[in-house]
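A.,

Following up on our hallway conversation. Structure tokens first:
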């Protein structure tokens, strides 16, 4: 029994005195902030510009001279948002809910010079201090370990890569920080995160990574434990709207047709509103045996284009039918 107690004591001492693979030294600077922009890159407020000022919350952490040796814990999602501000950015104005079909107005953000100065000050302040990076977006890692472990690994690897690129040297990875709140993600947000993640996975079979990566990374913010219930639900609604617009950039335009002969060609239109060329397969499945559809060769959709395709069919019996028409990758996924 004594041997067991000694073993446990040594383990506890090791955990308490080891300097921080988790960057939890006696003095650390935490740079983490819930997102201020939508998945489409448009900011929904300009509060980050205020927080970066020297006398404000994030500014004071960077501009204040170090009194002791420090370590840094950084969320690279915050760095990405500040970098996005440098060359000009847009801030969406609140919708006028008293008006029907009101359109979202966007105005130029006012923090470009503030962002540039903050990033420069950060690089100066860290000097040779140890730097650790959180998973991208400071998500609820305890929840992600069960709900989406592969995405957690992706958030970690992307954060390490982006952190090393920004600071110009190696960084370590941590999954949390001392004092991080416990996650309390509303069920509706959990479900929507899983749904968007599934749809992103499907689109990734067609779209190049650079086109979809900001959406894949961005939804990590839906699990940030520093947001309260109402903030998470509001962010979830915004992200869902942003993703639906994104997803709708690749779509089919179909209609209803009356077939009057045994062999017909049914027109459909494929729309590609993305800025990249896409190679796709149009999969047509009759939902009953009244018609047979001829397979269509693989298609190439030019950037920002429409392509009309005719589906050859043969009528086998009279009556109504539905053609399930889907855009898939070249491999049929």
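Then the amino acids I'd put at each of the 333 positions:
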């Amino acid at each position: 029994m004594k041997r067991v107690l000694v073993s446990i004591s040594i383990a506890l001492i090791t955990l308490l005195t080891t300097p921080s693979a988790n960057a939890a030294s006696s003095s650390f600077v935490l740079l983490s902030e819930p997102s201020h922009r939508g998945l489409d890159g448009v900011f929904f407020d300009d509060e980050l510009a205020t927080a970066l000022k020297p006398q404000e919350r994030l500014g004071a952490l960077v501009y204040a001279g170090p009194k002791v040796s420090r370590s840094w814990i950084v969320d690279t999602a915050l760095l990405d948002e500040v970098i996005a501000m440098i060359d000009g950015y847009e801030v969406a104005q609140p919708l006028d809910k008293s008006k029907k079909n009101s359109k979202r107005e966007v105005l130029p953000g006012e923090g470009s010079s503030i962002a540039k100065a903050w990033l420069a000050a950060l690089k100066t302040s860290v000097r040779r201090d140890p730097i650790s990076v959180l998973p991208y977006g400071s998500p609820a890692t305890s929840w992600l370990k069960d709900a989406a472990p592969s995405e957690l690994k992706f958030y970690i690897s992307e954060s390490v890569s982006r952190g090393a690129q920004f600071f110009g040297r190696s960084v370590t990875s941590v999954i949390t920080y001392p004092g991080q709140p416990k996650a309390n993600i509303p069920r509706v947000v959990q479900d929507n995160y899983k749904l968007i993640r599934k749809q992103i996975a499907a689109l990734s079979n067609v779209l190049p990574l650079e086109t979809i990566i900001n959406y894949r990374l961005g939804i990590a913010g839906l699990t940030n434990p520093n947001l309260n219930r109402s903030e998470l639900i509001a962010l979830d609604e915004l992200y869902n709207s942003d993703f639906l617009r994104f997803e709708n950039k690749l779509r089919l335009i179909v209609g209803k047709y009356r077939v009057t002969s045994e062999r017909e060609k049914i027109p459909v239109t494929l729309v590609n509103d993305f800025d990249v060329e896409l190679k796709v397969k149009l999969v047509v499945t009759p939902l009953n045996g009244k018609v047979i559809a001829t397979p269509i060769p693989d298609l190439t959709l030019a950037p920002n284009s429409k392509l009309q395709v005719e589906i050859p069919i043969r009528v086998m019996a009279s009556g109504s039918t539905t053609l399930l028409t889907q855009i898939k990758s070249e491999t049929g996924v």
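The first helix runs from residue 2 to 17. Curious whether your intuition agrees with the design.

B.
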